[in-house]
Amino acid sequence: MSISLSFQKRFKSLLEESDYSRSEIAKLIPLSQSTLSNALTYGIIPSTKTLIKIADFFDISINFLLGKTDIEDFYKSSSPASFLSRFESLCSEKEVTHYKVAADCLFDKSNISRWISKGFLPELEILELLCDYFNVSPDYLLGRTEDKD
Questions:
Q1: Fewer CB atoms < 10 Å away: N or C end of the chain?
Q2: How many other C-beta atoms lie within 10 A of the C-beta of residue 47?
Q3: Cα–Cα nearest to 88, from 51, 116, 118
């Protein structure tokens, strides 16, 4: 579980600027009341899947949502790719195996098995390691945009 005051502040700001109440937002995204409350009260960053839902709802980048950039412009892909296809493509471009990536990024290779066999998404900490390793944005790696930066 990651906690971020930058995320908390940015998410609160997005909610305040929207035309919806918190309960309406929770239904529209959709988010559980506990996820919404934890994010707003404690700055607990939700799962990667939930971050994508929030970012899609507000049409913003993951980095903007997390407070890592103040650039609001986001260009969503007209034909989104899956995380796994982007991961495999980046491994191919860099000429590394999946397991070399895990070793280089210092995370357990069993994560990759879960991505491949069960369609899971990486946790935020691993997602950030992968983005640094491949020098791409979370939105690119998650298939939300064609812009690698």
A1: N
A2: 13
A3: 116
Which pLDDT score is estimated for 1? 72
**CATH dotted code for 5-65:** 1.10.260.40
Tokens representing 119 are 């369609």
Report whether pLDDT(139) > 90.
yes
pTM of this structure: 0.94
80: tokens are 């989104």
Question: CA–CA separation, 141 vs 134, rounded Å?
Answer: 9
Would you call 44 helix, strand, or coil by DSSP? strand
63 token code pair: 């980095």
pLDDT in tens, 56-104: 999 999 999 999 999 989 999 999 999 999 999 999 999 999 999 999 9
Q: What is the mean pLDDT of residues 33-49?
A: 96
Burial class (CB in 10 A: 0-12, 13-18, 19+), 22: middle
Question: Domain 83-141 has what CATH class?
Answer: mainly alpha
